[in-house]
Amino acid sequence: MRRPSPRCSRPRRHGARELGGGAPPEIRLHDLRHTHATLLLTAREPVHVVSQRLGHASPMVTLTVYAHVLPGSQREAAGTFARLIEEARSA
Predict the structure, then answer these.
(1) What pLDDT score was predicted for residue 77?
(2) Exposure on the CB side of residue 6, measured as CA atoms within 13 A
(3) CA–CA separation, 9 vs 68, rounded Å?
(4) Tens digit of pLDDT for each residue in 16-64?
(5) How many CA atoms lie within 13 Å of 47's alpha carbon, on the beta-carbon side?
(6) CB 3 within 8 A of CB 11
(7) Which one is predicted more confidently, 1 or 50?
(8) C-alpha to C-alpha distance for 9 and 48, rounded to whole angstroms
(9) How far apart are CA 48 and CA 82, in angstroms?
(10) Cα dist. 17→3, 23, 25, 26, 27 in Å?
(11) Which of 48, 54, 3 is nearest to 30 (CA)?
(12) Please, what is the end-to-end C-alpha distance for the chain in angstroms?
């Protein structure tokens, strides 16, 4: 068995499929937790809700860890703001 990397408390075993066999790779509970949060955030679930589900101390922790999940958010926010300005002008 390999030594764990400094960033990981437990070594990750390669699944047989990755090595050419038919067994699926090992999936850790932490992997499922990360997938859960990522899917919720990409589905636009409010950050404070995801943060509570994960048990984070604040939404800022969630935003720090999962900022990479929302890279298009700034562009979307700018588009929304521009649309609101146009609607206000024509009202």
Answers:
(1) 84
(2) 0
(3) 23
(4) 555 566 777 888 998 999 999 999 998 989 999 999 999 999 999 999 9
(5) 14
(6) yes
(7) 50
(8) 28
(9) 26
(10) 21, 5, 7, 10, 13
(11) 54
(12) 68
Tokens of 47: 């950050």
AA identity, residue 4: P
Distance CA 30, CA 28 (A): 5
Residues 6+ apart with CB under 8 A from 18: 25
31, amino acid identity:
D
Query: Cβ contacts of residue 41 below 8 Å, gap of 6+?
Result: 47, 50, 66, 69, 70
How far is Cα 43 from Cα 77, in angstroms, rounded to an integer?
Answer: 15
Among 56, 58, 10, 64, CA closest to 33: 56
